[in-house]
Amino acid sequence: MAYRFLSSRIVPPSNRLSRRFIFIFTISLSFMYLCYSILLCSGTIMPNQRLEEHRCVRLKNMGSKKLLQKSHYCTISAKARVISDETRASQEIPPGPPLIGSKGKGAAKHNNQKGHLKVKCHRGLMPRTLDSQITMEKTPSYFVTREAPRRISNMSRETKLIVVVRNPVTRAISDYTQTLSKKPDIPSFEELAFKNRSQGMVDTSWNAIRIGMYILHLENWLQYFRLSQIHFVSGERLITDPAGEMGRVQDFLGLKRIITDKHFYFNRTKGFPCLKKPESSSQPRCLGKSKGRTHVQIDQEVIEQLREFYRPFNVKFFEMVGHDFRWD
Ligand SMILES: Nc1ncnc2c1ncn2[C@@H]1O[C@H](COP(=O)(O)OS(=O)(=O)O)[C@@H](OP(=O)(O)O)[C@H]1O
């Protein structure tokens, strides 16, 4: 008040007017900032990705009571979330309208951990998605993780799921080849695959074996999702006819068939199909060195024993999904 009084005494009227204008302008700005902050916190405005991540981390560090409170921060919605089991091959998006915004393993890891809030924050880690887009997330371990179906259905019951399956015997050998490349000292495939080989007792506690018992995992998913929400991609056909498999994936997602034959070519050196022109560059692109490695040689008898072992599981799986993947 003293200031106002003094200033009104010594400052001429025109100056007083401009000061009043500056004062009102500053107040308006502060008010706008306040409104913006309130809207942002309630999720009405989509916050940017970095802000989301920061907030998720902040919330993660709060006490356990707070962790169970509804978070306003992880509210980014998506039409569908797509989860694939096996391969990155179906995740590479050739050029075309950006129908799918994809988030990599960062978000996936988040949801793999335990905790209610983390599932919510998982949403916040997804990229921003327009109505015309589908957010896709790929986490191979979801299909075989007990808690995953419940958590995902809690997040969104209408999620569409994509699982890439291949012959479980080949899958086990591929899995072992990959582990061996990282840990060369592990026991032989035979030692790990059997509890007692002469009696044909397969060790189902070994992950490389357990994962291939698809029907058991599927039964777990079917407690939370309808079969029509799950699409199975043939890992074998993904190699021999990638466009055909991608066509079916697009149909399943309700997308126009944009990815077709003309997006792929067979790379003789790699021995696999590659993309002619991926989204991120103008150069053709094959999957990395760790995809499509030469497998460890396994005794034919061992392969036969494992085929026998998997047969009943495969039969039930084919019956359940209504499709014979011809793994015999
Ligand atoms: N186009 C193309 N290029 C290379 N590889 C291809 C392709 N399509 C399918 N595959 C098969 O994908 C297998 C690798 O999948 P992964 O299970 O390692 O993928 S992931 O790590 O879960 O993303 C990989 O298995 P391995 O051959 O055992 O390496 C391939 O057989």
UniProtKB/TrEMBL annotation:
Disulfide bond positions: 274-286
Keywords, comma-separated and alphabetical: Disulfide bond, Glycoprotein, Membrane, Transferase, Transmembrane, Transmembrane helix
Chain positions recorded as 3'-phosphoadenylyl sulfate binding sites: 166, 174, 291-295
EC number from the UniProt entry: 2.8.2.-
Stretches for region Disordered: 86-113
GO molecular function ontology, one term from the record: [heparan sulfate]-glucosamine 3-sulfotransferase activity
Top EC class for this record: transferase
Transmembrane segments: 21-40
Database matches in Pfam families: Sulfotransfer_1
Organism domain of life: Eukaryota
Domain Sulfotransferase residues, every copy: 153-311
Record-stated family: Belongs to the sulfotransferase 1 family.
Name this protein carries in UniProt: Sulfotransferase
